[in-house]
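The protein record reproduced below.
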Amino acid sequence: MIAKLLLVIFYLLAPAGVLWATRKFDLLRRLGPVLTLYILGVVVANIGIFPSEPEAHRSFLDFQESVSEILVPLALPMMLFGCNFKRFSVGKSLSAFIVGVVSVAAIVVASYQMFAEELGAEAPKMAASLVGQYTGGAANLAAVKQMVGLSTESFVLLSTCNLIVSFFYLMFLMGGGVAIARKIVGRNDHIDQEVVVDKSDDNPYRDFAKRSSVVQLLKVFVASVVIMGVSVVVGTVAGGESGISMVALILTITTLSLLMTASKQVRSWDKSYDAGMYLIYVFCLVMATMADLSSINWEQSLFVLMFQAVIIFGSLFITVFAARPLRIDADTAVITSNTLINSPVCVPMIAATMKNRDVVVVGITNGLAGYAVGNYLGYLIYQLLQTM
C-alpha cells in the first residue's frame, strides 16, 4: 500500500519537475515534456525498483492500468473546454479521415505481399485484424479477430508488437515527425497558419496557485468528474456484459463537453486546457512505467514487428504526402494518422507536441469515425486477401 502511494506521488510530481527542467535545459526543451516523460518512465520501469515476484508484479501492473484508465476520461473534458471550435472544419477533417483510412488499407495490402510467407498461414487474418486495429483501435482488433478466427497466440503477439511499434511511432512524431510533416506539406494560402502556433506562455502553470485560479480549477475538476461519471455509466450500459464500451464512453465525454462550451462561463475557463494537459503528462508517465523490455522475445517477434512497422509508418507517410494536393494542413493529417493508429486516447499528447490545441477535436472526431468503420474494413480486407 505504501509503495503504491509513493508511486502515485511520483506520478503527480514528476511531470512538474520535467516541465521545470524543459524550461531550464536546452536538450530537454528540444525533446519536449511528453518525450522526456516517456524516457523517464521507461528508465524507471527497467532499473529493477518495481516488484519482480509474479503476484506482486501483476498487482502493480493492475494498479498502473487502473490509474491510466482514469486519467484520460478525466482530462478530455478539461481539454475540450479550452478548444476553439470556430476553427473546426468538417470538410477538411473528413478529407483527412478518408485519406487516413485508405492509407491504412493500402499499406496493409502492400505489406501483406512483402511478409505473407514469413507470417505463415494466419497472415491474412493478421492483416485483417491490423486493419481493424489501425482504423478503430484495440476494440476493433478484438472484434475482427473474432470475425476471421485469428488464434489467441497470434492475437497476443500482434498486441505485444503493436505496443512496441506504436511507442516508436509516438517517439518519432514527438521527436521531430511533426516538424517534418509541416515541411513536406508546406504552408500556403489555403492553410490557416495561425492554428499551428501556440502563443501561450512558456509556463502556463505559473499562476495556478492564485486564489482565482484555484477556484476556477475546482469548477473545472467538478465539471470533468461529473462528465466522466455520466460517461462511464453510459459506456457501461452500452457495453453490457463485454464491459465498458470505449466508443460510447468517448462519444459521451465529447458530446457533453461540447454542450458545456455553449456556456460563456465555461469558455472563460482559461486554465482548463492546461490542467487537462497536466493529467495527460501524468498519463504518459504511467504508460511508460508499464514498459517491461525484459519480457519481449525479440527473435520470435521480428517479422511481426517489421510487418506492423511498415503499416504504421507507411500509412503516416502516405497520409502526409497526400495532404498537400488535397489542401489538408500538416497538423490535421498527422493528428488523423495518430488517432487511427493509436485511438483518440493519444490525441492530446500529440496536440501538445504540436502546440496546437485546436486539433484535439479533429483527432477525437476522426478517431470515433474510425471505430465505426474499422470492423467493416477489416473484414473486407480479409475477403480480398483470401482471393490473392
The two ends are 56 Å apart (CA to CA). The chain is about 75% helix and 0% strand.
